[in-house]
Specification:
binds flavin-adenine dinucleotide; binds uridine-5'-diphosphate; 20% strand; 5-stranded parallel β-sheet; 376 residues; alpha/beta
Length: 376
């Protein structure tokens, strides 16, 4: 009989969800993380009374009522609705692309029909052609004017590549609406946990052993010895010592400033969609909590950058080469006995938070079923 049923590597959302479910079923769980804090990339820190999202702005949104009910056990969610604005030069537009955007772009647009007249005129340059890259996809979706003002610069900064060399699917997830509605997401449920994500994850991990500043790879044999099974949420290529090659990522640099003013930009998220500045977004954290009273504000400038060793891995590069390599690693992982691979790093997937929780639910259920089959 080993000391723990599960050793969970990573105290992020995947690890915390899995650990919570196992603990609830009476299992002994140890969670380790190499960082000095829990919550992985959804970690928030209280600075001057403001919950600062240290690894990028995180807005919880989902259509899945099981996921929504699950997270609501650990935190109360506020009514935050993401409605970023885009700035190019000295012009401001509403996002996502909706009637407010169209009415500002074209001064004779009042109705959906007026907007559609402009967009369909501009789409003619595609001449019915199937889009083969991001530029063509954007023009066929929304026309050249909006592409050049609100998509081209942002996307080229984000990916450091010309839009003609990027796959079309990247912008398919951006909503286009012929109603006056600035809600960035279509999901039924949305909000930010009151008191921050770190508190929410602490609640999930309540009663579970957690060791921070602890790297799994410093002591693999020991961890395999003390636990029946490993739940691994770190990078999949690292687990296999990069034996098949290195999976590529895009990273971000965050520049955070505390300012002695109440309200810097009047919105939580402002996207900078032109090449005149190198950052893509400025986040003003207090607006996630409707705070306009406190005397200071905390703002973060977000600069996309190539990944280099020692940086955080943020965005998967889903080109043919990396997708193939990820498949090969998944094949290796499926043969690894007593290890469950889960989360954005171990699955090499761009996952929203609700997807990560769903993935942890289903991996835990598979585990329960497998155990049951063994006993039957
Ligand atoms: P992580 O949070 O990365 O957790 C993995 C943990 O494993 C880390 O804490 C790491 O330190 C630890 N670890 C790794 N290797 C080891 C090791 N060898 N030993 C010990 N510990 C180890 N989703 C949304 O739904 N809404 C949003 O608005 C949103 N915004 C985002 C903004 C940005 C900039 C980015 C990049 C992502 C955003 N996401 C958003 C996605 C969200 O961040 C992820 O879905 C979620 O954080 C993934 O959780 P995870 O547990 O898989 O990974
Ligand atoms: N995008 C854009 N302009 C914007 C915001 C997003 O062109 O103002 C494009 C860009 O290509 C980006 C993609 O839409 O990579 C997805 O944006 P989303 O906001 O979903 O990105 P994430 O939250 O993942 O950073």
């Amino acid at each position: 009989m080993k000391q723990y049923d599960y050793l969970v590597v990573g105290a992020g959302l995947f690890g915390a969800t899995f650990a919570h479910l196992a603990k609830k079923d009476g299992k002994k769980v140890l969670v380790i993380d190499k960082r000095e804090h829990i919550a992985g990339n959804i970690y928030t820190e209280n600075i001057k009374g403001i919950q600062v999202h240290q690894y990028g702005a995180h807005i919880f949104h989902t259509d899945n009522s099981n996921v929504w009910n699950f997270v609501n056990q650990f935190a109360e969610f506020n009514r935050y609705t993401n409605s970023p604005v885009a700035r190019i030069g000295n012009e401001i537009y509403n996002l996502p692309f909706n009637m407010n955007t169209f009415a500002k772009i074209w001064d004779d647009v009042y109705s959906p029909e007026d907007a559609w007249r402009h967009i369909s005129e501009e789409r003619k340059e595609m001449d019915g052609k199937v889009p083969s890259n991001l530029e063509e996809q954007a023009i066929s979706l929304i026309g050249r004017t909006i592409y050049e003002k609100l998509i081209k610069g942002y996307t080229e900064k984000q990916w450091n590549r010309d839009c003609k060399d990027l796959p079309a699917f990247i912008i398919k997830r951006l909503p286009v609406r012929f109603v006056y509605d600035n809600n960035y997401f279509n999901d039924k449920y949305q909000g930010i946990p009151v008191g921050g994500y770190t508190n929410m994850v602490a609640q999930m991990l309540s009663g579970i052993d957690v060791q921070l500043n602890t790297n799994f790879f410093k002591n693999v044999d020991y961890y395999k010895e003390i636990a029946e099974k490993i739940v691994y949420t770190g990078p999949i290529d690292e687990y296999f010592h990069y034996s098949l090659g290195v999976l590529e990522w895009r990273s971000l640099k965050f520049e955070t400033k505390i300012l002695a003013e109440r309200n810097y930009q009047g919105n939580a998220v402002v996207n900078y969609t032109g090449h005149e500045v190198d950052y893509t977004r400025v986040i003003e954290h207090k607006h996630f909590e409707f705070d306009t009273e406190s005397p200071n504000t905390v703002v973060t400038f977000e600069y996309p950058t190539d990944y280099q060793e020692g940086m955080e891995k943020y965005y998967t590069i889903n080109d043919e080469k990396n997708n193939q390599l990820a498949l090969q690693y998944r094949e290796l992982a499926s043969k690894e006995s007593n290890v469950i691979f889960g989360g954005r790093l171990a699955e090499y997937k761009y996952y929203d938070m609700d997807d990560v929780i769903e993935s942890a639910f289903s991996k835990y259920q598979e585990e329960v079923n497998e155990k049951k089959n063994r006993l039957d």
